[in-house]
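new request in #modeling-help
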Amino acid sequence: DAKTTQPNSMESNEEEPVHLPCNHSTISGTDYIHWYRQLPSQGPEYVIHGLTSNVNNRMASLAIAEDRKSSTLILHRATLRDAAVYYCILRAFDNYGQNFVFGPGTRLSVLP
Amino acid sequence: DTAVSQTPKYLVTQMGNDKSIKCEQNLGHDTMYWYKQDSKKFLKIMFSYNNKELIINETVPNRFSPKSPDKAHLNLHINSLELGDSAVYFCASSYLQGNTEAFFGQGTRLTVV
């Protein structure tokens, strides 16, 4: 199975940008890069996903390296509500049995 | 309307009992999942169903039996509960294709005493 590696924890100051890295050196051509986050005492929630091009939505931006072996989730202005565990996941387009396997993720702390 | 709803939210029960957790999604998704999150906060996939058929069955004791009566429901039945089953259980749903997002329920906190 393709796997991802992320730093265990990161810290950011409120209202500053945050760049959360993810390495996925064994990614295959049909794997989508997904990011989810889990706020305290809640279920995981979708943040963003992409294949090759950078992606933007109301929550975040996803920057994907040209060789697709790494990606970065960008929170443009961190707020206290962004403190959560962020998971980077590879999801095969059409492959049964390889969906949504979560790693330990990155615990993001946001300091006021 | 809640997209993925689980019941109950909290469940406290004694060792040896049998219990069920229900999950329903109203998103029209064809794939549903059960995850277990233990005290160390690791999210482990347990089962996945696509169109009512089992497609992922991780190493889970056979005391755990998922049942999918239709595409919108995936219930988890647990027999002979043990202390180690205490955890938060999350249900999720998505379309099977990897370019779609998944939605998670709010979790069921199971405590076995």
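bot summary: The mean pLDDT of chain A is 91.
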